């Protein structure tokens, strides 16, 4: 019998790290690292987390440690001085402070983008060194954005000599946000430095990994892909589709936010395609929208009783809605590298998925794995795909319950992915020790 691997400790650097009960906005940046921290112990890796805690340092747990950032500390001090100065002297002092703030707001994006996360770095490095000594961590893992996480990890690697894994959740220099051109040059320069120094680099999708390899070709063999996934302890086990409704209607769920917010798409094509279902050949259907949608996005459909507009739902409510649906819709990004995290919850739920937008990574995953259908962002194609899913209901039920798709689904489990990360961690540590 093979003995279990020896336990190891790894420092996880993540500016965002959501806690149970935290707001939905805080989940976006750190959920991936939180899930790794949750499941790595099952694979013999003890995570020690370094995260941002605001001005008040909360008690997060024995292995989750937080530090503030200098920008907020100084901002708090400036705010106090502003109140004191305004009450003790004259309005001119307050006016000078306001002008200083306005000048700083104009200049900072050109000189130092993402100031709060970078101003977290000095305090994070100091705390990270202490945690490495205390925990005897054998490796560092950091995840971006923000890329300041990698700046912290790079400083810790150079100070301690420990191996380092850099994880890229989003495109950085090759899919940059709007900003001055010189920022792109700075991003690319720093990204190359990360790729040179990191012992392994991970892309959350294949297009990100390919772009990283192209940016630093001599390090291409050190880049791998490790996707996002669903939490098997939260997403219910895949079950058979709900029984056909007496009226034969198709229940369609889109869960997320306003599509234009993140994907460059709009709801208009989905709504128009849904309306076409009522035309010959008619397919009775209900469209459930779970998320934040503005009235102008639903213009012309606000009084349509076939469209259920639920607003934000709790995670358990969304999961129940997923299991009650016949089709789960993804409005995919115009960026090739994007596979929305909601996609993986859909995969875990075991319902047919329709991806609207055929050029994204989400579309490729669904198409290649057979979890559903893909169509272009065009109403007629959406209606045709929905009709096909309705007509082939029994076939899809059998297909999704097959051992082949059960195995494919398991590959998108956070538990499975944590096992893969644990394998990479041990491999990097072994290579580093023998060097």
Summary keywords:
about 425 residues, 16 helices, six-stranded parallel beta sheet, seven-stranded parallel beta sheet, Rossmann fold
Summarize the SSE layout with pairings.
Layout: E1 8-13, H1 27-39, E2 45-52, E3 64-67, H2 70-88, H3 91-111, H4 115-135, E4 139-144, H5 148-160, E5 164-168, H6 181-197, E6 200-203, H7 206-215, E7 223-225, E8 250-255, H8 259-262, H9 268-276, E9 285-290, E10 307-311, H10 315-324, E11 327-331, H11 341-349, E12 353-356, H12 361-369, E13 372-375, H13 379-391, H14 393-400, H15 403-410, H16 414-434
Parallel strand pairs: 1-2, 1-4, 2-3, 4-5, 5-6, 6-7, 8-9, 8-11, 9-10, 11-12, 12-13
What does this entry look like structurally?
It is a single chain. The model is unreliable at 21-26, 80-88 and 259-264 (pLDDT under 50). Helices cover 47% and strands 15% of the residues. α12 links the parallel β12 (353-356) and β13. The strands form two sheets. Strands 3-2-1-4-5-6-7 form a seven-stranded parallel sheet, with helices on both faces. The longest helix has 21 residues, at 91-111. With 435 residues, the protein is of the alpha/beta class.
Largest sheet: 7 strands, parallel
Distance between the termini: 30 Å
Rg for CA atoms: 24 Å
User: How would you name the CATH homologous superfamily of the largest domain?
Assistant: Glycogen Phosphorylase B
Please indicate the count of domains.
Answer: 2
The beta-strand count equals: 13
Identify low-pLDDT runs.
21-26, 80-88, 259-264
Mean pLDDT: 81
The fraction of residues assigned to DSSP E strands is 15-25%
Widest β-sheet, arrangement of strands: 3-2-1-4-5-6-7
CATH architecture of the largest domain: 3-Layer(aba) Sandwich
- Supply the helix-strand structural class: alpha/beta
H and E order: EHEEHHHEHEHEHEEHHEEHEHEHEHHHH
Helical proportion, percent range: 40-55%
Q: In the CATH hierarchy, what is the class of the largest domain?
A: Alpha Beta
Quaternary organisation: single chain
């Amino acid at each position: 019998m093979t003995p279990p691997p020896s336990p190891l400790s790894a420092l996880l650097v993540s500016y965002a790290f959501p806690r149970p009960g935290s707001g939905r906005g805080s989940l976006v940046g750190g959920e991936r690292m939180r899930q790794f921290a949750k499941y790595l112990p099952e694979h013999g890796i003890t995570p020690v987390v370094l995260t941002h805690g605001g001005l008040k340092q909360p008690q997060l747990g024995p292995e989750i440690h937080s530090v503030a950032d200098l920008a907020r500390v100084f901002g708090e001090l400036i705010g106090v001085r502003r109140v004191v100065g305004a009450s003790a002297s004259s309005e001119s002092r307050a006016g000078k402070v306001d002008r200083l703030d306005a000048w700083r707001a104009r200049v900072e994006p050109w000189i130092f983008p993402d100031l709060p996360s970078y101003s977290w770095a000095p305090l994070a490095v100091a705390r990270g060194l202490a945690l490495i000594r205390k925990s005897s961590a054998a490796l560092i893992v950091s995840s971006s954005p923000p890329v300041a996480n990698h700046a912290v990890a790079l400083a810790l690697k150079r100070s301690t000599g420990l191996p380092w894994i850099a994880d890229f959740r989003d495109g950085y220099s090759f899919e940059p946000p709007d900003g001055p051109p010189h920022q792109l040059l700075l991003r690319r320069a720093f990204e190359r430095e990360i790729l040179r120094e990191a012992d392994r680099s991970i892309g959350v999708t294949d297009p990100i990994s390919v772009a990283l390899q192209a940016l630093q070709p001599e390090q291409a063999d050190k880049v791998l892909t490790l996707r996002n996934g669903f939490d098997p302890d939260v997403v219910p086990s895949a079950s058979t589709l709900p029984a056909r409704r007496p009226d034969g209607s198709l229940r369609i769920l889109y869960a997320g936010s306003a599509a234009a917010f993140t994907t460059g798409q709009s709801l208009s094509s989905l709504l128009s395609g849904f309306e076409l279902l009522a035309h010959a050949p008619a397919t009775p259907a209900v469209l459930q929208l779970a998320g934040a949608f503005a009235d102008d996005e639903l213009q012309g459909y606000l009084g349509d009783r076939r469209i259920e507009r639920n607003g934000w739902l709790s995670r358990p409510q969304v999961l129940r809605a997923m299991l009650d649906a016949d089709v789960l819709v993804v409005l995919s990004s115009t960026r090739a590298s994007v596979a929305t995290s909601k996609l993986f919850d859909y995969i875990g739920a075991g319902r047919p998925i329709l991806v609207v937008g055929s050029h994204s990574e989400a579309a490729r995953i669904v198409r290649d794995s057979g979890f559903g259908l893909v169509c272009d962002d065009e109403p007629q194609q959406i209606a045709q795909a929905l009709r096909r899913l309705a007509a082939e209901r029994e076939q899809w039920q059998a297909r999704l319950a097959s051992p082949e798709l059960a195995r494919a689904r398991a590959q998108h489990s956070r538990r499975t992915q944590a096992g893969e990360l644990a394998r990479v961690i041990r491999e990097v540590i072994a290579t580093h020790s023998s060097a």
